[in-house]
């Protein structure tokens, strides 16, 4: 038998190093495919994303018509199907999204990508929308995983098992898995967070090697990534700014003074590209939610908001980010530290990487404090980066415990990602009671915002069941079907107008936004 050549031996060694990483990738992919299969209807914000991507009425200034009776099949045909079809219709919708996406608090890049993914949908099926939107997210997941593998390879060269463990924590936690289930921009942002962090590490390496950042490839790459990062979420500008500031400090410490002008130029150029991608990029300054965020910076509510932020972060971290598995491991690690001193966690050449992880964690805390609701999805883009730092320190602790115990922790963490309780946005139909026996359902929509909630009911309405929007409570009796002894009216929670209407019997919560009000006029 011939001895393997050095080239084939080197190739075999590379394959041997890659197989644990590939194993984690396919495990994470399988987990996501399973939960996509389990998802039965779209999350609250998802139909809004579809409406915006299709440039449909029912959002912004145009609304669904009050008093117009539609069957469930007709409604889904209006909301779910690519009625324009073909490349011309796609181009028209992309041009409309470039001008104004009608959602001031969000930029347009994700809606443009979603519109491309929905091209050619010709059936009013919720399952088709779930497959298309989640399929788009799987693409972003693959790009995020690849970018993280490159980042870790640069940060921990030759440390295959450490890289594998970091990837396992970054992509098998419930937050990252749940991200694939919603038709929103957060998984796209997750990928761009990681890709931007990778660019920052490459930039730091150039600074360390006394190479200028003004190289065309470095500037162009940074400009493209940063503009995309900003164009899929306005809060992302904080992470962009924090990381650039850290790089500027690193340049100063390395005496790379000629690169200090690079950062403001990149920042200004990124904003210009953002406006080229989306003319309405600065529309968020006039959005009502911008005012709500600004109010959190002042007044007497900041202490209450701080309390809710701490509680929210604690709950999300304990159950969905670290999970109880690694929470227990961290407690044991802290006990071990009382007995044995830890190794030096980051060497000097890894310092920029440590800064990036700190930036990601600081970003998550600030965003959670600024957010109107303490929801996981707002901070989900930063979770993989944050967990890389956690994984590094956990590795130091797991080295001091028996391999069997370390294996038990890893297995328990993987199993936790297959449990439904910590998983968000699965949305089973059985979780919502629906009066399928009623001939006609009514939606109380006194204003544009309430009329838009019709999108949240599209999945549940039977094909032949009817629905109509009423603007005034006095219209309820008029639009109710004669054969319905009980009338079901969906509307905002705790609506005094509906509760005061004659015939009102009871209110029951339907979802986070709506209640169903029962009326009996006999």
UniProtKB/TrEMBL annotation:
The chain crosses the membrane at residues 15-35, 138-156, 162-181, 188-205, 225-250, 262-286, 306-339, 351-371, 401-418. It comes from the Bacteria. Keywords: Membrane, Transmembrane, Transmembrane helix. This is Glycosyltransferase RgtA/B/C/D-like domain-containing protein. It comes from Paraprevotella clara YIT 11840. The lineage of its organism: Bacteria, Pseudomonadati, Bacteroidota, Bacteroidia, Bacteroidales.
